[in-house]
Amino acid sequence: MDATVTAPQISEQKQRLLDAILPHVPFDGWTDAAWAAALADLGVSEAEGRLIAPRGSVDLAVAYHQAGDAAMLDRATAEDLSTLRYSERVARLIRLRLDGADREVVRRGTALFAMPHHAAEGAALIWGTADLIWRALGDTSDDLNWYSKRAILSGVYGSTVLFWLGDDSGGVDTDAFIDRRIADVMRFEKFKADARENPLLKPFAAGLDRLFSGVRAPAGRAVPDDLPGHWSPSTGGEQ
Question: According to CATH, what is the number of the domain 12-235?
Answer without folding.
Answer: 1.10.357.10
